[in-house]
Amino acid sequence: MTTGPLSTPPSEARNHPINPWWVDAVIYQVYPRSFADADGDGMGDLAGVTAQLPYLEELGVDAIWLSPFYVSPQRDGGYDVADYRDVDPLFGRLEDAERLLDAAHAAGLRVIVDLVPNHTSSAHPWFVEALSADPNTEAGRAVRDRYMFRPGTGAEAPNNWQSTFGGPAWTRTTNPDGTPGDWYLHLFDSSQPDLNWDNAEVRGEFEDILRFWLDRGVDGFRVDVAHGLVKAEGLPDHHARPGMVTDAEPLAAAGDADAGEDVAGHREANPQDHAHPVPYHDQEGVHEIYRSWNAVLAEYDHDPVLVAEAWVSPLERLFRYVRPGEMHQAFNFTFLLAGWDAVRMSDAITVSVQEAEKVGAPNTWVLSNHDTVRHASRFGLADPTRYPNGLGAEDEQPDDALGWKRGRAAAMIELGLPGSAYIYQGDELGLPEHTTLDDSLRQDPTFVRTEGAEKGRDGCRVPMPWRADAPGFGFAVGHHVDTGPSPVNPNTPATPGHDAGAAPVAPAAPWLPQPESYGTYAADRQVDVAGSTFELYRQLLGVRGELDLGTGAFAWSRFHSPELGVLAFTVATGGGQGGYDLDSGDHIPEKVALVMANMGQTAVEVPEEYAAAIFSHDEAMQDGQLMPDSAAWFLRR
User: Fold this and answer.
1) Catalytic: 299?
2) Judging by DSSP bridges, how do beta strands 621-622 and 625-626 pair with one another?
3) 3-state secondary structure at position 54
4) Which listed residue (96, 224, 355, 454) is catalytic?
C-alpha cells in the first residue's frame, strides 16, 4: 500500500539508498505530555509536538517516536490504553495526530508510535464487558477469554507472581451476584489487565490496529513489553519480582566468564541462563506473533519498522527478536545498563556487534528513556553504574557538573556506533533528572504500589524547558501571553481559536514542576550557542550523516584499553569493493572516524594522524592528552 509523500530524511540523503531508512536512523523519543503544550492547559499535546518540529529539524534527527497518546485513564502515563484508534482529549483529537504526521513527513521526519499489546486499560470496553459477564455462561467465558482470568485456590491467587510495579500480579473480581470471582493477571498495575495472546480475536484485533495507523502513514511501532505477551503453559510459580529494564542484565554484572567474547561457550556451560526461566518473559510464542506483524507491515511500501522493547538477557536472546521476518530493531538495554564504565560498556558493545552480525540486523543504541533515571544524573552518582528506580530528595544527589561532562561523552560513544540510535527528549540539552520532586506530586504507580520505597519514573518525565525566562520555562509554546516569537521556533502558532485582541490569560502550570536548574538548560540558552550540548549533538549528527557512520564497519582501535578506562573504536565507510556511488559510479574514498572516550582517572595520549577532531567539551583536550570524563571523534578522510 502506498502512503503519503515524505521529504527525504537525513538518513536517506546519503550514499546508501539500498538500506531501509531505519538501519542507521537517529530517532528522537517524544513523551507527549511533557514535550510542548500548545493550548496552555499544563499538559503537553500533539499540537505542541507539531509546533516544535522545526526544532527537531534543526537538531538533525531522522524520525520521532511518540509515547502513547491514545484514549486512556492515564493511570500509567498512557500505557493503560482504553481505545487504540483514537487520541485522548488531553492530547487533542485524531485530526491532530493526522496533522502531525503530515507536518513531520513534509519536514522529512518519520513517525513511530507506541503500541501497548501486553495489556489494556481496565476501562477498555473489552475488560468492562468481561467484568460484567457471567463466567458461567458460554458468552461470558468467551469475552473473558480475551484476558488472563483464572480461578484461585480458595482465597489464594492462582500463583505467586508479583507485579513489576510492586505487590501481587493478581486481583480478584466480584461476580455479578456479589460472590468472590476469578482472578485476573496484571504484570503491571491492577488497572492494566494482561491480554490472552492465545486468543485468536486478540491477535486479529491488533493486526487491525496496525493497519489502522499504517493507513494513516505511520512509519512504524515501538512495541511495549514485547517480551511479555506469552506466558508459560500452566503459569508456574516464580519467586522473583520482574525488573523494568533491569532484566536486561549488564554482562559484567551477570558474572559471565566470557563477557566480551562470543556467547557460545557460556551457553554450553550455563544452559539454564539461555532458556529464559521467567515464565512470563521471553517465551518462544512471542516470535510467531511478530512474524505475523512483520507480514502486515510488508503490505506497505514505505518501509515501516517494528521496534522491540524487550528486557531479556543474555544479549543472545535479545537478537532473536530481530531475526529475518520478525522485528527490525530491539533496544539495547545492556548498553544502557553498562553505566559509565569502560569494561562494562566494552563488553556490551562487543557482544552486541557479534550477535547483530549473526542475524543480519542493525544494533539499536540507547542511553535514556521515559522509564530510566536520565543518564546525565546516573553518571553523576558516586557509583556511575548504579541504576536506581528513581531518585528523591533524601537519596544521594548526583554531581550535576560531572554527570553533564560524562553525559556528553557518552553521547559521542552512542552516536559514533554503527546502527540506529535513540535520543530521549532533553538528552540533547543535557537535562538532569528532577531529583527533588515532592512526593505529593508523584504519579508513577510504582511509587504508589511500593508505598514510596521506590520513587519511580516521574523525575525523568518532567516537562521540557524551552525558554529560560518564561513561566514554566516556556512549556506552553506559542501561548498568547508570549511577548514575541519563540527564539527556538519563530513560526510557533498562537493557540488555535484564540482572539489576538483578547486579554492575556496565563497558561496553567506544567503538570509536573520543573526544577529551578532547568532554566540553565533551556533550549533558547543553547540553540545557536557555541559549546552548548544542543550544538554538540547537532554537530555530531551532521558529521555522523556526512561520514555514514551508521552503516560503517566497526573495529576496536589499538588505543582501546578498557581495563585502563579507555574505550576506543574506529568506524570506516566508503572505499573497498562496495565503495562506489550508485548514481555516478565514482569511487567513494574511505572515511575513518576514531571514537575515543576516557572513562578512567588519568589523562591519556591521543593519536596524531587524524586531521580533524570534535571534543565533548572545551577542556576535554589538554597538552595533547584526552582528559578524564571526556570523549573525542578524530576524523581522517
Assistant:
1) yes
2) antiparallel
3) helix
4) 224
Residues of the chain with pLDDT under 70: 1-17, 244-276, 479-504, 575-588, 637
How high is the pLDDT of residue 39? 96
Among 299, 395, 469, 586, the active-site one is 299
Per-residue pLDDT reduced to its tens digit, 350-404: 999 999 999 999 999 999 999 999 999 999 999 999 999 999 999 999 999 999 9
The reply to whether omega before 151 is within 30° of 0 (cis) is no
Cell of 8: 527525504
Q: Are the C-beta atoms of 226 and 310 separated by less than 8 Å?
A: yes
DSSP letter at 274? Answer: G
Angstrom distances, CA of residue 10 to CA of 62, 201, 205: 6, 40, 35
Helix axes 533-547, 400-416, angle to 10 degrees: 10
Q: Are the C-beta atoms of 291 and 325 separated by less than 8 Å?
A: yes
Phi first, then psi: give them for residue 88, nearest 5 degrees.
-65, 140
Spatial distance between the Cα atoms of 305 and 591, rounded to a whole number of angstroms = 29
Measure the CA–CA gap between 229 and 282, rounded to whole angstroms: 8
What's the predicted TM-score (pTM) here? 0.90
pLDDT at 503: 53
- Inter-residue contact 104 to 97 (CB < 8 Å): no
Cα four-point dihedral sign 203, 209, 215, 220: negative
- The region, left, alpha or beta by phi > 0 then psi within -120 to 50, assigned to residue 217 is left
Residues in the chain: 637
The answer to whether 224 is a known catalytic residue is yes
